[in-house]
Amino acid sequence: MTRDLWKHLILIFGALIVIAPFYMMISYSFKSPGEIDRGEGGFFGRQEMMVDERCVKLRDPDRDDVATAAPRFPNQTDRQIRDALVAEAVADCQMRPIVFNYTKAFTEAPLLRYLLNGVIVTASIFLIQIVVALPAAYALAKLKFWGREAVFSIVLFCLLIPVHAIALPLYIMLAKVGLTNTYAALVVPWTISVFGIFLMRQFFMTVPDDLIDAARMDGMGELAIVWRVMLPTAIPALLAFAIFSVVAHWNDYFWPRIVVTGNRDLFTPPLGLREFKGDGDGSFFGPMMATATVIVTPLIVAFLVAQRRFIEGITLSGMK
């Protein structure tokens, strides 16, 4: 009993460590800048009306504005008219912190465009990875040919190579063929996933050979077996691989930062967070956390929906 208690305490402690950054991210997305700086307000903040200082600065009246507003303020000096216009701007620029943060998340930068880019890039990478990984995994698992084990050893070796080690050669190659600042630069280097080949190969090893022999007796070729027999049986493993692939490339900041240098329309969601980096007015921590929350939410929802199949796919693939 004591041993089980310690196990549960360790698991709870580990869960708290994992949840803590998400707690802070969501909490900061609700708070005003003052509450964030002072570390007060609880989880949701007090949600008191606040003034958007940048909004007020953008509406700072000049001489023409004062002259145009003069008929509205008869018998007033220019200074008084200007003060009245500033007061109107302050009143119009008041809002709740949660409205301020999430409004800025979508207006300070084209977040919807960045989200669309993320969907295009991650979906393209995953689909091409599947087209490559399924036949390769099937060949390594079910076909007998000379050098099969050596090829599989190379696949395992490639799992040990970090992406940072090959980033420079990849960039030089893409630059020489003029593919930087394109979707191709974001997609092409990751279309072959050695992890996907390994994961699917481990799953295919659990598929009975009798099923494949029956398909061959029905006159199916090897490619037909891959797409009409093996693919339907591999759905749990594909969902598990989809979680790994989509999360890795949706959250990738390193590679897009290298190959997307001048075209803001190609920014992926993590690059969008740079729009709120510190400058002369300081960092927009609230809108930054609101943006991070919007970016992370689709991944969390997708994982919760596919959780059972994800665990099933990992288990059936022989990964412990």
Describe this structure in words.
Helix content is 70%, strand content 1%. Helix 1 crosses helix 17. The radius of gyration is 27 Å and the shape is elongated. The model has no long low-confidence stretch (mean pLDDT 83).
Q: Averaging pLDDT over every residue, what do you get?
A: 83
CATH domain fold name of the domain at 112-279: MetI-like fold
Following the backbone from N to C, one meets helices and strands in this order, namely HHEHHHEHHHHHHHHHHHHH
The total count of strands amounts to 2
How would you name the CATH homologous superfamily of the domain at 112-279?
MetI-like
- Read across the widest sheet, the strand sequence of neighbours is 1-2
Please identify, by name, the CATH architecture of the domain at 112-279. Orthogonal Bundle
What would you report as the Rg, rounded to the nearest angstrom?
A: 27 Å
Helix content range of the residues, please? 55-70%
- CATH C-level class of the domain at 112-279 is Mainly Alpha
Our count of helices gives: 18
Q: Compute the separation of the termini in Å.
A: 25 Å
Strand portion: under 5%
| Helix-strand category | mainly alpha
Largest sheet: 2 strands, antiparallel
Query: How would you sum up the global shape?
Result: elongated
Uncertain runs are: none
